Amino acid sequence: MTTTIDLPLKGMTCASCANRVEKALMAVSGIDSANVNLASDTVSISGDINMTALSNAVNAVGYQLDFATKQFEVKGMTCASCGSRVEKSLNSLAGVISATVNLATEQVSVVVTPKVNDAELQQAVKNSGYELVITSNIEKPLDDKSSTAFYHKDGWPVIGAAMLTLPLVLPMFGMLFAQDWMLAPIWQWILATPVQFYFGARFYKAGWHALKAFTGNMDLLVSIGTSAAYGLSLYLWLTFDGHHGSPHLYFESSAAVLTLVLLGKFLEKRAKKQTTSALQALENLKPTSATVLVDGQWQTLLASEIKKADVVKVRPGERIPCDGIVINGNSNVDEALISGESIPLNKTNGDKVTGGSVNLDGVLEIEASAVGSESTLSKIIRLVEQAQGAKAPVQALVDKISSIFVPAVLVFALLTVLVWGGMLGQWSQGILYAVAVLVIACPCALGLATPAAIMAGTGTAARHGILVKDAVALESATHIDYVVFDKTGTLTEGKPVLTQITALKGSEDALLELAYALSEHSEHPLSKAIVNFAQDNDIQLADITGFKVIAGSGVSGEIDSRAIIMGSSKWMTQLGVTLPTELIHSQGASVSWLAESTAHGTELLGILCFADKPKQGALSAVQSLQRDGIMVAMITGDSQASAEYVAKQLGLDNFDAEVLPQGKAAAVAAYQAKGYKVAMVGDGINDAPALAQADLGIAMATGTEVAVSASAITLMRGDPELVSSSLKLANATYRNIKQNLFWAFAFNTIGIPLAALGFLNPILAGAAMACSSLLVITNALRLQRMSF
């Protein structure tokens, strides 16, 4: 959908800045135009707006879109029509970029510019008939629940209405045993009136707001339907001539429908809380206090008061209050609820620990490295909230249907009355059947079908160490038929070991000394393997000048006035070196060649070979994907021989070797050009372009922040088997959404005609309507029982 929005920018200083921002935004898929106004520091953007993509594009060129995402509770919503009205009221405000309602959590996520304040948002929602709750206004004392009066508790309307309704519906059961338990009309009226106008007041209030907004919702249908039954009963009672027994009244229908709807909403609310259990479990991981070293003394502080570089003591059984590095102690740490890793991990000096994990058996002293909103746990919670609050693409169709559904039902109910009354002369029956139509048609289940499934699915994913960025990622995952893995650190351990040193000139120690000097300043896994080997064997570190990294090829530097280079086979071949590959003893080894640049060319000095084992779950991960009909490939910068060896070990369908970092995205694009929907799995900085290019980017959180931010799904453990689990969960979630939508539509498609034809009385219609919502939520909760 093409829209135009104006967004504030931060960081621009001149016309070249504006040009860079415009160019970056125009490169985003779906954007038709982007015009920066340097004077006002804003940009006007037209096209198919995706805020995440726009923000990422602007950040990539060094600037920022100046907006914030806020979440609020909204009170009074009952169906998809309510959600649409709240969204419409907020989106009409200047400075609101987008507003998305999640009916399952009764929350709204609003993307706003700095000039919008919370009071404006609150007033807009109030004008549409609902209440936006600002967090500071709803803070309550800890014992608030126990001190709440019984008539303010959630269950009171259900209990009160049921107690008054029971005497009204008991005569229906008496009829089964030829017993006449029917109450006198005056008692029926006395019992039904409080149910109608006290316990049912919420429906009148919300229905009136809907009418004022020239729209309809569930409350309007319930209030009109039950009022019709109540009003018809009054009319029949007051006009009864008294000659033929008692009048046939329908007070029990109006009261029973209201009671059933209240019961359904109460049970629905309780069930909806279960869909947020994963998020609540993450919130509960945050410790409230911590033992911190202050001026040489251990003091107990609030966890929120910890600052970066503070030293924190964690005793056995306590939760770690922040991300940090162990500086003293040794203990096993349980990270199950954060990463999904079921086996406790041993932590000692120099190891990283994550806030929220449980220290099991030893005392640890930790130097805080990330606190508050920057901690891993806070980022996970934000991601889960973002995913659970997002709308799936299919929800757009549901919202469109909901917008016309209620008016259509009102027309259909009116036609029911006119047909039965005008054509058949049965006005009382016509009104009663119209009431059943109005009640069975309430679109509660329709509004819950998608968000309930997404919340349950993303919550289950988080519990297993899979973080889904948004609902679009879930849908993309259902179409994947080709998975492409990076090799080092993704399919393999990423910790290569030096296995062969062959000197072609001079001694092996001399060769290793040169390699050590070149590797000391490099972050490449092969360089780290050389450094570890050299330090273990007490090799002297030589001085080096002019150190340089040649991306995707190798490193170079000057050692003892000699220009030394070390790098890949491809680079050496490009330099004109003939490689004695027959001297390589290790099958499938990664190879680095050491050479010296001289006035006469490049002279080869030696060979270094490395072994990097496939991860323990790599083979089963590949096989699991292939069993599901998904092809699996690998992209690596390593040599052809090394890549081929790993590909054979794992049974891959394809692989690309000796690919430069900038070539990985092109390799993914080549698979896409063949018609495949591609998921890219990686963990390094050089994987980020390929992750962004793929139809679905999956990053290992054990890798770099850049890779994680470029991906749609983040795996909290470096376990390739989680890739298959992610795709299975996405498919299960979307299957669940389709099932929910089927049942939501089925109840209405079958129920409305049955009600109009007189086969469904209002009480049964009310029960069916309540059951439809519970069925949808219960079906969504099945996702929480998925195991991998």
Summarize the structure.
The protein is α+β, with helices and mostly antiparallel strands and 788 residues long.
Q: Can you offer a commentary on this structure?
A:
The strands form six sheets. The protein has a seven-stranded mixed beta sheet, with helices on both faces. It has a six-stranded antiparallel beta sheet with strand order 10-9-11-17-12-15, with no helix packed on it. It has a six-stranded antiparallel beta sheet with strand order 20-25-24-23-22-21, with helices on both faces. Among the domains are: 66 residues, Alpha-Beta Plaits (2-Layer Sandwich); 64 residues, 2-Layer Sandwich (Alpha-Beta Plaits), CATH 3.30.70.100; 64 residues, Calcium-transporting ATPase, cytoplasmic transduction domain A; 135 residues, Rossmann fold, CATH 3.40.50.1000; 115 residues, Calcium-transporting ATPase, cytoplasmic domain N, CATH 3.40.1110.10. By secondary structure, the protein is of the alpha+beta class. The two termini are 38 Å apart. α9 packs antiparallel against α15, α13 runs antiparallel to α16 and α16 packs parallel to α28. It has 28 helices and 30 strands. A hairpin with a 4-residue loop joins β2 and β3.
